[in-house]
């Protein structure tokens, strides 16, 4: 199979059936032929290689996830992972990250974290050294620094500031405001007590969105690395890192640090990772659903499609994707609104392979 393989629905089902047959036959497949295994959103090849190398060297699933996501943060994958990416309305970049241990079900997460560039390592510190699940904002930054991570530092970059300046020059469009009236195109925004939006929307170009749901999500302005790692023992962990949606309202936390939305793992079943419009997807916890569907016996391809279809029925214009992988190493992806790619490295592969899934 080529390193970049396009998966059509019929081909995907056929490949899964063949893979299932290869696992059947009355003999248990040795773990050494399945693990380590790394699956990640998007063609983040260096991140997958980093996680694979760590797992192959005997690192735990949790530590391998950290190595993989940290590599993506350092490389600023797609300009939306790590420092120096997606600016908010004020031109500032912030970090969301999560890590989950699929054996203990422990989770550590940070949201809207400022001044600290190591999102995934901060999330691990929350998991290891607190009884909490998530810390947010400046308090998350203070905690991470107190635990030894470098900071405070400016997370903006020349690229993110240039992106923000061009957005300001475009009257701060597009943005995530709705049903508000600014005194000028970039705010400040406010409500009018007597405003009749139905009549005013068509007359005032500065009313934001007028209650409509429009997606500003795209591959290079709203993206997440979501990674699952099976270590040599077959233990599973998942992790995510992102700096969120470009031009988000300051303080916004997406689905990146939400367990069950951006990622979920249970070593008895498998794992899931997600990317896309987190504001929509977190309302459905698609990765929790995927894992629970697989627990009930559903194949990864069907579990992934079912999770996406449930969101699509309520929000037909949403953009997003999930990958699913069970404890037997079967993997699949499903998406809506864009073409999705995910990366895999297994013992049978000489290098990372990228799978393409059409909506």
From TrEMBL:
GO cellular component terms given for this protein: cytoplasm
Catalytic EC class: hydrolase
Binding-site list for substrate: 252-255, 275-278
Keyword Iron: no
Site annotation Cleavage: residues: 223-224
Keywords associated with the record: Autocatalytic cleavage, Hydrolase, Protease, Signal
Segment forming the signal sequence: 1-26
UniProt-listed Pfam families: Asparaginase_2
Catalytic activity: Cleavage of a beta-linked Asp residue from the N-terminus of a polypeptide
Annotated InterPro entries: Ntn_hydrolases_N (IPR029055), Peptidase_T2 (IPR000246)
MF terms in GO: beta-aspartyl-peptidase activity; N4-(beta-N-acetylglucosaminyl)-L-asparaginase activity
Keyword 4Fe-4S annotated: no
Residues at the catalytic site: 224
UniProt EC number: 3.4.19.5
Gene Ontology biological process terms from the UniProt entry: proteolysis
Subunit structure of this chain's protein: Heterotetramer of two alpha and two beta chains arranged as a dimer of alpha/beta heterodimers.
Protein family membership: Belongs to the Ntn-hydrolase family.
Protein name: beta-aspartyl-peptidase
Originating species: Daucus carota subsp. sativus
């Amino acid at each position: 199979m080529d390193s970049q393989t396009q998966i059509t629905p019929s081909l995907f089902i056929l490949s899964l059936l063949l893979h299932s047959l290869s696992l059947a036959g009355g003999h248990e497949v040795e773990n050494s032929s399945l693990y380590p295994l790394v699956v990640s959103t998007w063609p983040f090849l260096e991140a997958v290689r980093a996680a694979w190398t760590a797992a192959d060297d005997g690192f735990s699933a949790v530590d391998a996830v950290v190595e993989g996501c940290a590599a993506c943060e350092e490389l600023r994958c797609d300009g939306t992972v790590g420092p120096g990416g997606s600016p908010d309305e004020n031109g500032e970049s912030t970090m969301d990250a999560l890590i989950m241990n699929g054996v203990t079900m422990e989770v550590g997460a940070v949201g809207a974290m400022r001044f600290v560039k190591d999102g995934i390592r901060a999330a691990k510190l929350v998991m290891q050294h607190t009884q909490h699940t998530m810390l947010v904002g400046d308090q998350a930054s203070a905690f991470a620094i107190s635990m030894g991570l470098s900071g405070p530092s400016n997370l903006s970059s020349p690229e993110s500031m240039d992106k923000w300046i061009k957005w300001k020059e475009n009257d701060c469009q597009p943005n995530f405001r709705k049903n508000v009236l600014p005194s000028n195109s970039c705010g400040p925004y406010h409500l009018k007590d007597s405003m009749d939006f139905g009549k005013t929307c068509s007359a005032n170009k500065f009313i934001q969105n007028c209650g409509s749901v429009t997606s500003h999500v795209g591959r290079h302005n709203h993206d997440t690395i979501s990674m699952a790692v099976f270590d040599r023992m077959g233990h599973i962990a998942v992790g995510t890192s992102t700096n969120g949606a470009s031009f988000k309202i300051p303080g916004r936390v997406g689905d990146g640090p939400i367990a069950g939305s951006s990622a979920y793992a249970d070593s008895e079943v498998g794992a899931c990772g997600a990317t896309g419009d987190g504001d929509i997807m977190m309302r459905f916890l698609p990765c929790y659903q995927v894992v629970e569907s697989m627990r009930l016996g559903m194949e990864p391809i069907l579990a992934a499609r079912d999770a996406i279809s449930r969101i699509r029925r309520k929000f037909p214009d949403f953009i997003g994707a999930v990958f699913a992988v069970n404890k037997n190493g079967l993997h699949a992806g499903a998406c809506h609104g864009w073409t999705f790619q995910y990366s895999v490295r297994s013992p049978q592969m000489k290098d990372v392979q990228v799978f393409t899934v059409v909506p």
